[in-house]
Design brief:
Helix 2 (32-40) crosses helix 16, helix 15 (320-338) packs across helix 18 and helix 22 runs antiparallel to helix 23. This protein is an alpha/beta fold. The relative contact order is 0.08. The protein is globular and about 85 Å long. The protein is built from 26 helices and 17 strands. It folds into 5 domains: 6-106, 3-Layer(aba) Sandwich (Rossmann fold), CATH 3.40.50; 152-291, no CATH class; 303-359, no CATH class; 372-570 and 650-661, Alkaline Phosphatase, subunit A, CATH 3.40.720; 572-643, no CATH class. 43% of the residues lie in helices and 13% in strands. This is BREX-3 system phosphatase PglZ.
Length: 665
């Protein structure tokens, strides 16, 4: 079967024109597989977003080559309609050919406003459904119903019972594709026509996965209390004070529901509860959701997570969202392994870790460059975060935003932090997502990219330091229309009196955006002698001080929408020996070395063990990384360390979390 990409790719034949200008209002050329295929054909893609930044890249990298009589296949992408291309600088219009692509041309039978709200992940499935069914011209509701049925496997007219509804919601929220708001509105509207669901808070639990999971979590204890010893559901559960409204008793015992509930507890989306009213057999399907003192539940959960991760393992052709999804599951498994003393489980984990990171390294080599220019409507890389937050300010009721960057925190360590925060305040609600850090995964590269809101190629003068972060942060937000007094920044946080500290930088009446760096985790990492388990232990101890909880409370009281992320993660690594390079290297990391030219980098790599060359994607022109391969480090042979800089899933995929409180009924 043909792909929707084919009609676009046929227009790109190498050596036709040194410059191609593309009107791409729907960001089609940024789709990862299409972008990767264009790069394979020799085309360089660059966005015309900021005219000054574009000129810097265009003049320094391409004009100089053309002036020497050499050829490049440069594609300049503009997020504008074809009619707006005439506003481009004259020299570009003279030098380049012009193309235009749109969703409307690829999916002509569907309503464009509905297509516009979809993530690119679903285009392949939608194109197949369009080819298979040959639908006629559809309006808004027809398009919504078609997409609900063919992309999300939801047929509202077949949802007639509480089991039907719960099964559909579990399938919807357990999946990796989030339902856009117009489709959620349509689904809610259709379900509300059924009187069977009049008590269900459809508006919130259809649209919001975290509220749905909170809804399920509250009712799990009720279900257990209503279960008798012969595993029969009893009627009339005792009254409970519920934060999320709706029916108290749900049909968890139905066979179509059980399989989802089991996975939700295993993957940490639901938390096991204390229960002693009745004796539940260890092999009961309910045991996954019940805390036990014996540790049997933890062992079961570890084995189930191994199975889930192995069965869901992405491959070299997977989409980026599949890697982000597996990172969440891998983080849950990592926490359990690092808090467990079973050597056999650790060996199994290490073997699977080597397999995952081998596949991941190959995938990054193929597709990492295609992530950079993805639209920031849903952040995929850390430099997308500021632009995404800016859109949040523009398009919602959000008036103030705070971004907390916990330097060096890996995804599994975030889970340790989250569990601690949840125990301190059960009303906290965490919307977990993930993004890719910049490679090499160094603070001066990836953290600066967060605060600059742009790739490192645009801050070459400060690439080895973080001292320009405040300036870059303020420059970004001023470019979005904020005044200097509306922007706050503070770093080196983590152990001081948070109120006194933040009062000095945040004006509750004027500060609209606040960027803050908490570097406690990074300090723990660089002083760590006890490996990954020691990291989790010390992070848990820091959380018990209440510092982070107090920070969240303070920002919540001032009315800030709070987002939390990290610039890079870390991995426990084993030394393969130090590299003998004298003063020739620009940066001596334990997991990465930076060289000023490719010849020197390649020469050192040829004479060293366990290294991997990394192309300087999105990096300054004199910045050539040499990475430690697998879980190795450039330290004394056989020594262990916890470090960062490389391309393991633990270092590259980091949390992006929206922190809220569970809404009251």
């Amino acid at each position: 079967m043909s792909s929707w990409r084919d009609n676009i790719l046929k227009e790109f034949i190498p050596n036709i024109s040194k410059l191609t200008l593309v009107a791409d209002p729907d960001s089609l050329l940024s789709e990862e597989k299409l972008s990767s295929e264009l790069r394979k054909r020799g085309f360089d893609l660059i966005e015309f977003d900021d005219s000054i930044e574009f000129r810097y890249a265009y003049e320094s990298k391409y004009r100089s080559i053309w002036d020497q009589g050499l050829h490049t296949d440069l594609v300049v992408i503009l997020r504008v309609q074809n009619s707006e291309l005439s506003n481009l600088p004259y020299d570009l219009l003279q030098a380049g050919r012009i193309l235009s692509f749109s969703l409307g041309a690829i999916f002509p039978n569907f309503s464009y406003p509905i297509l516009d709200c979809l993530e690119q992940h679903v285009f392949d499935a939608l194109f197949r459904a369009q080819e298979d069914t040959s639908p006629g011209i559809m309006g808004d509701n027809g398009t919504k119903d078609f997409i609900l049925r063919h992309i999300y496997s939801i047929a509202p007219e077949l949802i007639n019972t509480e089991v039907d509804l719960l099964r559909s919601l579990l399938r919807l929220h357990y999946g990796t594709i989030e339902i856009p708001e117009p489709l959620a509105d349509r689904l809610v509207s259709l379900l509300q026509n059924n009187v069977t669901f009049k008590e269900w808070p459809l508006e919130s639990i259809v649209k919001d996965s975290k509220v749905f999971y909170a809804f399920i979590q509250e009712r799990w204890s009720i279900f257990l209390d209503s279960y008798d010893q012969v595993e029969q559901v009893m009627d009339s559960p005792s009254p409970y004070g519920l934060q999320v409204s709706g029916p108290a008793l749900l049909p968890f015992e139905h066979q179509d529901i059980r399989i989802y509930i089991d996975n939700l507890f295993v993957e940490g989306k639901l938390s096991p509860v204390e229960y002693s009213k009745h004796s539940v057999p260890a092999n009961s399907w309910m045991s996954c959701g019940i805390k036990t003192a014996s540790g049997d539940t933890e062992a079961i959960r570890i084995n189930r997570l191994f199975s889930i991760v192995t069965s869901n393992l992405p491959n070299a052709q997977s989409r980026y969202n599949e890697w982000l999804s597996i990172a969440l599951q891998w983080g849950e498994l990592s926490v359990l392994i690092h808090n467990n003393s079973d050597v056999t489980l650790l060996e199994r984990f290490t073997s699977l870790q080597t397999e995952i990171n081998g596949i991941f390294a190959g995938w990054l080599t193929e597709y990492y460059a295609s992530l950079i220019n993805l639209p920031p409507s849903t952040p995929v890389m850390v430099h997308h975060i500021p632009r995404f937050l800016s859109r949040q300010l523009e398009s919602s009721d959000t008036k103030k935003i705070a971004l907390l960057v916990i330097d060096g925190m890996a995804f599994d360590q975030w889970i340790t932090v989250k569990h601690s925060l949840q125990s301190q305040d059960p009303t906290l609600l965490f919307r977990d997502s993930a993004v890719f850090a910049w490679i090499p995964t160094l603070t001066s590269v990836s953290r600066q990219a967060i605060f600059a809101g742009k790739p490192p190629i645009y801050f070459p003068n400060s690439i080895y330091s973080t001292n320009s972060e405040e300036k870059l942060w303020k420059q970004f937000w001023q470019s979005q229309g904020l005044q200097k007094q509306e922007i706050a920044y503070r770093r080196s946080l983590g152990d001081e009196n948070i109120e006194d500290c933040l009062e000095a930088v945040i004006n509750p009446y004027k500060t609209t955006v606040a960027g803050m760096v908490i570097d406690t985790v990074d300090k723990i990492m660089h002083g760590m002698q006890l490996g990954a388990p020691g990291m989790h232990n010390q992070i848990a101890q820091w959380c018990k001080t209440g510092y982070l909880k107090k920070t969240l409370d303070y920002l919540d009281e001032l009315g800030y929408e709070v987002w939390l992320t990290s610039d890079h993660g870390n991995i426990e690594a084993v030394g393969t020996g130090r590299i003998a390079e004298g003063s020739l290297v620009d940066s001596r990391g334990e997991r990465v070395r930076i060289y000023p030219n490719v010849e020197l980098r390649n020469q050192i790599a040829a004479s060293s063990v366990g290294t991997r060359l990394w192309a300087p994607i999105g990096l300054p022109e004199d910045f050539f990384p040499l990475l430690a391969d697998n879980n190795t480090a450039f330290i004394k042979e056989g020594a262990t360390t916890v470090a960062h800089g490389g391309i393991s899933i633990e270092e590259v995929i980091v949390p992006l979390i929206k922190i809220e409180r569970i809404p009251h009924r």
